[in-house]
Amino acid sequence: xxxxxxxxxxxxxxxxxxxxxxxxxxxxxxxxxxxxxxxxxxxxxxxxxxxxxxxxxxxxxxxxxxxxxxxxxxxxxxxxxxxxxxxxxxxxxxxxxxxxxxxxxxxxxxxxxxxxxxxxxxxxxxxxxxxxxxxxxxxxxxxxxxxxxxxxxxxxxxxxxxxxxxxxxxxxxxxxxxxxxxxxxxxxxxxxxxxxxxxxxxxxxxxxxxxxxxxxxxxxxxxxxxxxxxxxxxxxxxxxxxxxxxxxxxxxxxxxxxxxxxxxxxxxxxxxxxxxxxxxxxxxxxxxxxxxxxxxxxxxxxxxxxxxxxxxxxxxxxxxxxxxxxxxxxxxxxxxxxx
Length: 339
Fold this sequence. Notes:
The protein is α+β, with helices and mostly antiparallel strands and about 350 residues long. The protein has helices spanning about 1-20, 205-225, 235-255, 270-295, 300-339; strands spanning about 25-40, 45-55, 70, 90, 95-100, 105-115, 125-135, 145-155, 165, 170-180, 190-205.
């Protein structure tokens, strides 16, 4: 009887010890399915996506379906937003459902606009990396950690984007550190939260932009080269060609910039415009020099020979500078991605 009484007394004491034997972080398995990508807005640094994200977990202490939130949803552009702004997920089930392995499962569908600062250094040959970021807003990594599913992310084969080629998406989980405890004196500084990164690389198809942007610039440059063919005595016609070419290139640049955000660096297309403007400026300056020289120093035949040599060399220098510009930006971007 004494043994029976001791067993009854000790049984309740053993239960808490077993419950708290695991002092590590709870783990939540996460995966995603990208259903569609509707639009990339370079001017607004955003894109529109439609995706599903799911969670599986064990244990009653956590429920990620109540605490997960998108970190880069654009609250000013979404038509369906949460009370705090930004896109909110639609639960597929009213409550988490039980899985055969004893875990619980919940899934969400997110539809809306997500913010992403676009990299435009090598525009119009740019490669964008669209990122959707989720983070647990309640639990840090001391108590909750997300881990990718066995198949972390997939994309619908029906997803297409005019003008872009979509690469293979990835889902990774990182411990994002905040250099603050957010005013919670009971918590240490430098808190870390599990952050889910869903990345979708998209590569722009350069051919349409070569036809729409680069080809008109080259045509204007070729028309400008007519300056070196016209006789030096036709300085009015030469100057007219140069002024028209200059205004045309400026108008082309304004049209292109209106569809792009304002950035603090020179894009590859900006350098191409600058080199083209310099070519026109050199041609106009040479027109003035050739006209004065023809009147005071040289015969028209000799002037014509100099004009043609100048036209050929200036055009060759222009082509080399454009080729070097494109090669530099493409190689610089590739080295940056490898690093």
